[in-house]
Design brief:
- The chain has one domain: L-arginine/glycine Amidinotransferase, Chain A (5-stranded Propeller).
- It has ten helices and 15 strands.
- The mean pLDDT is about 90.
- A three-stranded mixed beta sheet has the order 2-1-15. It has a three-stranded mixed beta sheet with strand order 3-4-5, covered by helices on one side. A three-stranded mixed beta sheet has the order 6-7-8, with helices on one face.
- Helix 6 links the parallel strand 7 (about 170-175) and strand 8 (about 195-200).
- It starts with a helix and ends with a strand.
- With about 300 residues, it is α/β, with parallel strands linked by helices.
- The protein has helices at about 1-15, 50, 65-85, 95-100, 130-140, 180-190, 245-250, 270-280, 290, 300; strands at about 40, 85-90, 110-115, 120, 150, 165, 170-175, 195-200, 215-220, 220-225, 235-240, 255-260, 260-265, 280-285, 305.
Length: about 300
């Protein structure tokens, strides 16, 4: 474990770190939509003993990754985010995940819902993931988050990839699979002035969350895998993707919306990239083959902490 940790530290130094300052600056969070300019994100740097498991299926992986190449992909993605002016908070300098490891910790999007006033801590459905959310919260606390936190009752399950901000006044929550309908009720009680629309979740794994089948990229534009997300989510501009090798196995729709009509997508998906660009989307690419073996890609890995406030 020590050698692994030292290797991560060296990689992190090469990438550059969030600089420690004499004056304490609190970590800010804010989100009221899915497409305004990203200011900051949280990432997990996977540890070797988390992902080099004996049985991939037992931890919901597709395959066991090559760890060295996995770290290279995470490094390249992190570098791309920083090159776009996005502050990245990660956990490589902290020992919490070393002492309390989880195979799926890399999928940070699932672990919280960010609101204008609160960080709502997830309660994952499966026991194998329960506890990841506290590693995430500890990381944010160490980076300076001192804001309000909402923890859910044990019988209320929620994973953040089932939650979309449509606008400051409306959200969509996918319920019935990873996220329980009682979470929608909880959110309504927290934010009675916000319209909460619920949609029925797809069958387990097809996709695991609504995020696996839909991505909002502008105020009125959404990308959908229409054969698995059949709901009308209320967008006038719908970019429909077919089920093929790129969408199903290469995670070509597992994207991060950096700003309106600007995304990061997994590299190696030329047909899907061409579709995006034909609709005027600015596309950045980064490799994600090893990340994909864990059953996800950039959308799953990225917990957006702060988006620019709409005026």
């Amino acid at each position: 474990m020590e050698d692994n940790f030292k290797d991560l530290i060296e990689r992190h130094k090469e990438q550059g770190n969030v600089e420690m300052q004499d004056d304490f600056t609190p970590l800010e969070i804010y989100q009221e939509d899915e497409y305004s300019r990203i200011e900051s994100v949280a990432l997990h740097i996977p540890r070797k003993y988390e992902v080099l498991v004996k049985d991939a299926a037992s931890v919901m992986f597709k395959q066991i990754p090559n760890y060295a190449r996995l770290l290279e992909e995470v490094d390249q993605y992190r570098t791309l985010l920083k090159s776009l002016g996005i502050k990245v908070y990660d956990d490589v300098d902290f020992r919490d995940t070393d002492l309390n490891p989880f195979p799926n910790q890399i999928f940070m999007r699932d672990l919280a819902v960010i609101t204008p006033e609160h960080l709502i801590v997830a309660n994952p459905k499966y026991n194998i993931r329960k506890g990841e959310q506290y590693n995430m919260l500890t990381t944010l606390r160490r980076h300076g988050y001192i804001g309000k936190v909402v923890e859910l009752p044990e019988d209320v399950t929620m994973e953040g990839a089932d939650f979309f901000w449509i606008s400051k006044n409306e959200v969509i929550i996918s319920v019935g699979n990873r996220t329980s309908s009682s979470f929608a009720d909880t959110f309504k009680s927290l934010y009675p002035s916000i319209n909460v629309r619920t949609v029925e979740a797809a069958k387990e794994g097809i996709p695991q969350h609504i995020l696996g089948g839909a991505h909002i990229i502008d105020r009125d534009t959404i990308i959908q895998r229409k054969s698995i997300i059949k709901h009308n989510l209320g967008f006038n501009n719908v970019i429909e993707l077919e089920e093929n090798e790129e969408t199903k196995n290469n995670y070509s729709m597992n994207i991060v919306t950096v700003s309106p009509m600007e995304i990061i997508m997994p590299a190696g998906n030329p047909n899907t990239k061409a579709i995006y660009e034909s609709h005027g989307i600015k596309v950045h690419e980064s490799p994600a083959k090893e990340i994909g073996k864990l059953s996800g890609a950039f959308a799953c890995c990225t917990l957006v902490l702060n988006r620019t406030k709409n005026k």
